[in-house]
Amino acid sequence: MKDPVVLRVVAKVFIPFILLFGLYVQFHGDFGPGGGFQAGVVFGVAFVLYTLVFGPAAARQALPEGAIRLLAAGGLLLYIGTGVAAFFFGGTFLDYNVLAASPQAGQHLGILLVELGVGVTVFAVMVSVFMAFAERALP
What we know:
This protein has helices at residues 5-28, 36-54, 56-62, 65-88, 103-137. By secondary structure, it is an all-alpha fold. The longest helix is centred in the last third of the chain and has 35 residues, at 103-137.
């Protein structure tokens, strides 16, 4: 298969919808099934599809290795930072009640931040592991 034009066009159409679904899973996780881990995997799947269709070189151009490392570290720091922030407001580690004016708002904010950190970290690690194999196996 020399130039899979149809595959490239279909991938360009589907990838934004996959990313949109990942956002839905991320932000709906507070109220129902879903959350950071699942959203990170969905975002990772979109990047894997992009890599399989356009090649590892194009994927590295879209998301360099340094950016992947920053995302992994940033997601972990967001998770830990949310827990440590509770200390400064008089709570214990990951005690979300003290993060806002009311305990309910604090719980919502804390869970949102922690799940976002988990999602970013899962995405970055999944992409990092995939790219380590893809660069050796794909042309």
